[in-house]
Amino acid sequence: MKYTTAIFDLDGTITDSAPGILNSIRYALEKKGIRQPSEEVLRSFIGPPLKEQFQCVFGLTAKEGEEMVSLYRQYYGDKGIFENRVYDGVMEMLENLKRSGIRILMATSKPEKYAIRIAEHFGFGRYFEFIGGACMDGTRTAKHEVIEHVLKACGIPESERENAVMIGDRRHDILGAKKSGIHSIGVLYGYGSKEELTAAGAEETAALPSDITGLF
What we know:
This protein is an alpha/beta fold. Helix content is 46%, strand content 16%. The chain contains 10 helices and 8 strands. The chain has helices at residues 18-32, 39-43, 50-58, 62-76, 90-99, 112-122, 143-153, 171-180, 194-200, 209-214; strands spanning 5-8, 15-16, 85-86, 103-111, 130-134, 164-168, 183-187, 204-206.
């Protein structure tokens, strides 16, 4: 398969964003007087839409989930967003893909405005033709919805989807790609396991950012 369009997830694929995300969750829980869960439970928040994850993990209503997201953003918008780093080898991988003429796009469940700020701050925004994400009002959070937003914004018709591939570290990326009719690559250096990615149906896996280049 000849991929011509690479659509990347952000958290766990381009950057190691765990410190900022976990600190923001801890802040929200403390503000609401909710007991802090284990590190494993906290890390389950990296990747999925936040409101749904707060509801699922803590048994909250939709309204309470929205309140938790608002508290989360109080910390994340000022501090947590920059408690982050680009994975080793990612910049080189993006540079190689760009030189090869691959279209590089982003589809993340993180709010779009945060994703753009992160890309600009850490210097990888120049590689991306388009950065698509969730809306601040809580809509367009499902990965399938974000992928569709990116495909439409970039003028990629149904007939060209066979040449597009979603690259991410969690099952949501793989399942979203399937629903949108594009290919998928699961990265093993992020927050999801090989078992999670293969069970979701990842067509290929990459242990390191440099391995992604080889799949093109």
